[in-house]
Design goal:
713 residues; alpha+beta; five-stranded antiparallel beta sheet; 39 strands; Rossmann fold; 24% helix; single chain; six-stranded mixed beta sheet; 16 helices; SH3 type barrels; 5 domains
Length: 713
């Protein structure tokens, strides 16, 4: 006879088995939404997304707007050498509701029309500034801070926090042009011009550029481009005695780290869209979960992909389409920080940036975090469960003291940045104040046996500055007068202007861009070419010149054919084959940014006020009407005689173009009055089959005023 305890064990085992079967049955009955990841199975997009989906599913799934629950599935399909054709076919067959990736901006631009054809949101971690402007569908979203936000945060930190203005830049390859130029532009917004600003054209020139940097002795050097060249440059500068701040945006590169002595890695500053050293609770929870699940440390792309899945889950819980709901998310708190698609607009989801520095063990530490150019408060470390924060009383100090509140602060010989730097103090260093300026904006400390001046705004003050004596500042130093350097003795090719004919460009028809090139140097330039790679078709269009004498100007025509309407930009480069020697200055000014529009010809446009019952013929050919302001059944705008209408969200009237008026989307018979408000953009497929657009200028229960235009097919 079995004992009572045996029966209890059997009962509990049966109950647990039944519960597990029931749970599996419930999950099996839940609908599943599939999300595609254009990545390898072990890539950061795939792993970050799958971890987020796993956590959401284990917590019960996503709760839809109607209260139903469903599971998320992430399928990974890797691109093939940058070609997405096969991968996108697989995702289309799988019926994905959204796509994450790809990681590279070039891959997106090369396959943009195919990605748009999926007609689902595409969320990418690519940071190129030009990426979202190339998309005319409104389907493309960026899941982490763009390059311009990273550059702006770094410039703000150097100039406003560290009080550093003697900043040099060096570009080590052509591929890093956007990052290098963008950082220089960001510095200019803070009143700083990089000096010198160097460009490496040939590997053999690196030694000469190193010498130029050593002669300039900048406080800061920001390097962009090849990890191998950056490592060589940094190693040689340190060996020659340069002790300035080195900034490099690829410090995690194995090639860079393997070619820099380990002891010299400490102190290198970089920028990240999410730092692994963050100590806020969201970051620590993600870091721990990822490390446990994957057995590795996540990178910023994994964090962005994790956030992207949570954004999708939030949007799925809202009424309406997924694409509209993603745009309308006001804020969720992600691993990277606040994610605010509705506030940022244009497909941007994050402006969170971290400034980091390598420590003595090769890991990173967070110097500061930014939202755009806004410096955020320091992270608050997460506490273990059940532990209450305690406050340790500080010892009472007699006198007035200051504590350095930033990573490094300069101590100068007088109260302005015109005075020499005597040395530096580190974050947390504390000194007694022996005097101050009359307005207390600068304080004086005893620094190595002499008066050292520090800016008060960068310090934490303990005590009352009015209790210390006012110290008269020393005489302002006379700036060194440097003779104006003579103009370049080499040729110096510059693009002065570029004119598009016709404007806008008509798709699938030949257009011409007249590029005006000037030789601003003192030597003649021989044969050279000028051109660029034009989106959306990535068409390389080039023109040539037999040469230019000093001061001579020539108009060089570039002709080509593009398709896919929209708004685009291209970087035109003169001497793009490096056939003319222009010297350091000349080689740095060969780029010209051109914005252009591709669109179909307009056959009619105007404005009209419709009273109830009125019809509008957009073509104006008096053949038949296209829309009617109707009150027969429900007050609204109707398409008539086969005309179709639909809303175009996320664009203003001037931003609409022919391809955006997609017949698969503009397919409704009518729009009720409740959907028509001033500023609403309405796409129209006319009764004649042409594509048009209307903007609601005024509406009430009897009248509808619109501005409109209609395109030729």
């Amino acid at each position: 006879m079995q004992s009572r305890s045996s029966w209890v064990v059997i009962f509990l085992f049966t109950l647990l088995t039944f519960s597990a079967v029931l749970m599996f049955s419930v999950q099996a009955q839940q609908p599943t939404f599939t999300i595609g990841a254009l990545d390898t199975p072990t890539g950061p997009i795939s792993l970050g997304a799958r971890l987020a989906a796993q956590q959401i599913n284990e917590a019960g799934g996503v709760i839809g707007a109607d209260g139903s629950t469903f599971q998320l599935e992430v399928i990974t399909v890797p691109p093939t050498n940058g070609d997405l054709t096969s991968a996108l076919n697989d995702l289309r067959d799988a019926g994905v509701i959204a796509v994450l990736g790809p990681q590279a901006a070039d891959t997106i631009l090369d396959n943009l029309s195919d990605l748009q054809a999926l007609n689902v949101p595409v969320l990418t971690p690519a940071t190129s500034d030009a990426l979202l402007t190339a998309d005319d569908s409104g389907l493309l979203f960026r899941t982490r801070a763009s390059q311009i936000n990273q550059n702006n945060a770094l410039a703000a930190h150097l100039v406003e926090v560290l009080d550093l203005t003697q900043i040099a830049t060096i570009q080590l390859d052509i591929e890093s042009t956007e990052r290098a130029v963008g950082f220089s532009l960001a510095l200019s917004d803070f009143g700083v011009a990089p000096e010198p600003s160097l460009l490496l054209l040939q590997p053999d020139d690196l030694a000469r550029l190193q010498s130029d940097l050593l002669d300039a002795t900048p406080e800061v050097l920001a390097a962009f481009g090849s990890p191998a060249q950056a490592a060589s440059l940094y190693r040689e500068l340190r060996a020659a005695g340069w002790r300035g701040l080195f900034i490099y945006d690829q410090v995690s590169s194995n090639v860079f780290r393997e070619n820099v002595p380990f002891a010299q890695l400490e102190g290198i500053v970089s920028v990240a869209t999410w730092p692994t050293a963050a100590v806020d609770s969201a970051s620590l929870n993600f870091l721990l979960a990822y490390a446990r699940a994957v057995g590795a440390v996540p990178n910023p792309i994994a964090a962005a992909s994790y956030d992207a899945i949570n954004l999708i889950a939030t949007a799925l819980g809202q009424p309406g389409t997924l694409i509209d709901s993603l745009r309308q998310i006001d804020r969720i708190d992600g691993v990277q920080g606040p994610l605010t698609p509705a506030r940022l607009g244009g497909g941007e989801m994050s402006i969170n940036v971290a400034i980091t520095r390598l420590n003595a063990l090769g890991g990173s530490e967070v110097l500061a975090r930014y939202a755009g150019t806004t410096l955020l408060p320091p992270d608050i470390p997460a506490l273990p469960p059940g532990v209450d924060p305690t406050i340790t009383p500080s010892p009472t100090l007699e006198g007035v003291f200051v504590t350095v509140s930033i990573p490094v602060q300069n101590v100068r010989s007088g109260p302005s940045t015109d005075f020499d730097v005597l040395g530096q103090l580190n974050e947390g260093d504390q000194r007694e104040v022996v005097g101050a300026t009359a307005d207390n904006t600068w304080v004086v400390i005893d620094f190595r046996g002499q008066q050292g001046w520090m800016a008060t705004r960068l310090l934490d003050v303990i005590g009352n500055l009015n209790d210390v004596p006012i110290i008269a500042p020393p005489a302002t130093p006379t700036p060194n007068v440097t003779a104006t350097p003579p103009g370049p003795v080499e040729a110096d090719l510059i693009i002065d202007s570029a004119v598009v004919i016709p404007d806008p460009i008509i798709p699938n028809q030949t257009f011409t861009i007249n590029v005006t090139v000037r030789n601003a140097g003192s030597n003649a330039a021989g044969f050279f070419s000028v051109g660029g790679t034009f989106p959306p078709n990535n068409a390389f269009i080039n023109g040539t010149s037999p040469g230019l004498a000093p001061g001579q100007v020539q108009v060089i025509p570039l002709s080509g054919i593009l398709s896919n309407t929209g708004f685009y930009s291209v970087s035109l480069i003169v001497d793009n084959n490096n056939q003319v020697f222009e010297g350091t200055v000349g080689e740095a000014n060969n780029m010209f940014s051109l914005n252009y529009r591709i669109d179909r010809p307009i056959i009619n446009q105007g404005a009209q006020t419709l009273n109830l019952g009125d019809t509008l013929d957009l073509e104006g050919n008096l053949v038949q009407g296209d829309v009617n302001w109707n009150a027969n059944d429900e007050l609204g705008l109707d398409g008539i005689f086969g005309g179709r209408i639909g809303l175009i969200g996320g664009f203003d009237y001037n931003g609409v173009h022919w391809d955006l008026i997609n017949p698969q989307v503009i397919a409704r018979d009518s729009l009720p009055r409740s959907e028509l408000n001033p500023g609403t953009i309405v796409g129209v497929i006319t009764a004649d089959g042409n594509r048009g657009v209307m903007r609601v200028d005024f509406v009430n229960d009897t009248q509808l005023a619109v501005t409109y235009r209609v395109y030729s097919n």
